[in-house]
């Protein structure tokens, strides 16, 4: 028995009229080594802490513009972490650092010092920052390779 190649089937329709080369299949994404991933998470927590401290000081200094700048800075750290790691956990790390820092700064010290005063600005920063953290953690998941067209193709 000889192995002869079978003739290709003729196709009709829009797929047969392709004029360009086919798009190559996307290569799978290689995960980061565990040590590097842990280091990135630690750096993201530290960035969240820095965003929390800077925002706590900035939001009270220049009320409307400082509050907006503080929330935009926190959103940049949260969403940037998610996009950098390509997973929602990249947003969780800076969110945790920011939240722990802000909660620590809301407590009064024995000397009577505090960072957050009682006012609209402080409450807007705390609640707005939590809302931004939830939004960035929700939106932080990257889309599937190939996008919507690859999932709907027949």
**Gyration radius, in Å:** 25 Å
> SS-based structural class?
mainly alpha
| Helical content class | 55-70%
Can you write the helix and strand succession as a string? HHHHH
Let me know the average pLDDT.
80
How far the N terminus sits from the C terminus, by CA atoms, comes to: 36 Å
Helical segment count: 5
Principal-axis shape = elongated
What kind of sheet is the major sheet?
none
Strand portion: under 5%
Count of beta strands:
0
Keywords: Membrane, Transmembrane, Transmembrane helix
Transmembrane segments: 38-57, 63-82, 89-108, 120-141
Biased composition (Basic and acidic residues): 15-25
Pfam families: DUF6113
Provide an overview of this structure.
The chain has 154 residues and is an all-alpha fold. It has a domain at 45-142. It has 5 helices and no strands. The longest helix is centred in the first third of the chain and has 28 residues, at 34-61. The two termini are 36 Å apart. The mean pLDDT is 80. Pfam families: DUF6113. Residues 15-25 have a biased composition (Basic and acidic residues). It comes from Streptomyces indicus.
């Amino acid at each position: 028995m000889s192995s002869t190649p079978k003739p290709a089937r003729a196709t009709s329709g829009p797929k047969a009229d392709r004029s360009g080369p086919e798009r190559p299949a996307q290569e799978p994404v290689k995960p980061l080594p565990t040590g590097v991933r842990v280091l990135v998470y630690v750096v993201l927590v530290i960035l969240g802490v820095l965003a929390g401290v800077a925002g706590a000081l900035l939001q009270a200094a220049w009320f409307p513009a400082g509050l907006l700048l503080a929330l935009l800075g926190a959103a940049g750290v949260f969403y940037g972490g998610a996009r950098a790691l390509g997973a929602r956990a990249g947003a969780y790390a800076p969110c945790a650092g920011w939240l722990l820092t802000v909660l620590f700064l809301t407590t009064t010290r024995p000397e009577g010092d505090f960072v957050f005063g009682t006012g609209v600005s402080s409450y807007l920063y705390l609640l707005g920052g939590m809302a931004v953290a939830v939004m960035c953690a929700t939106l932080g998941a990257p889309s599937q390779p190939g996008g919507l067209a690859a999932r709907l193709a027949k």
